[in-house]
């Protein structure tokens, strides 16, 4: 039986973003980590904002802020956002990264933190969870791995474990991950990688606390 998760756990968001860590030599930040990030410079990752180096040698795990490229207003799917509940719309207005939602799920719930956003939606036989992060941890000693699949606006990572599809990618400078848990006895597309990936590709922008001019 599928369980509808109302709020994201620190563990699920941290683990789901592992593929992004390997892709860029860094890992996304979990929502439960509230400590102040240290400045870090010298990263070759384009989507991380370089800041003056503080004293000491980077040995791994240094937190850096991602440089978010906010989409223009015309990229926002206003109709999809307006179909959401009042609480979800209010959360979108506080989100520190652009919010991606399944377009045809007006019951989707949105949760935000200082550096993260999480979306939860469900349908008959499946659940969808989407997370976005505005922070990363840098591990200079870990080499980057090439993405495995075309995904969204570029490429990303796609895996499946015990019936749960996991996706991770970079978009608008933010690190995203998504999990789709489905029951093949209920939904015919559950075992079809192309069909599930198409669902992720169809996520729409619902806004955030900023929009590019």
Which word captures the global form? Answer: globular
Strand order of the largest sheet: 4-5-6-11-10-9-8
Radius of gyration: 17 Å
- Low-confidence parts, pLDDT < 50 over ≥5 residues? 1-45, 50-55
Class based on secondary structure composition and strand pairing? alpha+beta
Q: Can you tell me the number of structural domains?
A: 1
Sheet having the most strands: 7 strands, antiparallel
Total strand count, please?
A: 12
How many DSSP H or I helices?
A: 5
Question: Strand share of the residues?
Answer: 25-35%
Oligomeric description of these chains: single chain
Terminal residue distance: 45 Å
Helical proportion, percent range:
10-25%
- Average per-residue pLDDT, rounded, comes to 78
Fold blueprint:
Blueprint (H helix, E strand, L loop, with lengths): L9 H7 L1 H7 L1 E3 L33 E4 L12 H5 L3 H9 L4 E3 L7 E4 L3 E8 L2 E8 L1 E4 L10 E3 L2 E8 L2 E8 L2 E9 L10 H9 L2 E4 L6
Antiparallel strand pairs: 1-7, 2-7, 3-12, 4-5, 5-6, 6-11, 8-9, 9-10, 10-11
Write a concise keyword list for the protein shown above.
17% helix, seven-stranded antiparallel β-sheet, 213 residues, disordered N terminus, alpha+beta
Description:
The chain has 213 residues and is of the alpha+beta class. The chain has one domain (10-207). The chain is 17% helix and 31% strand. The protein contains 5 helices and 12 strands. It has helices at residues 10-16, 18-24, 78-82, 86-94, 193-201, and strands at residues 26-28, 62-65, 99-101, 109-112, 116-123, 126-133, 135-138, 149-151, 154-161, 164-171, 174-182, 204-207. The strands form 3 sheets. It has a 7-stranded antiparallel β-sheet with strand order 4-5-6-11-10-9-8, sandwiched between helices. The chain is globular, with a radius of gyration of 17 Å. The N and C termini lie far apart (45 Å). Residues 1-45 and 50-55 have low confidence and may be disordered.
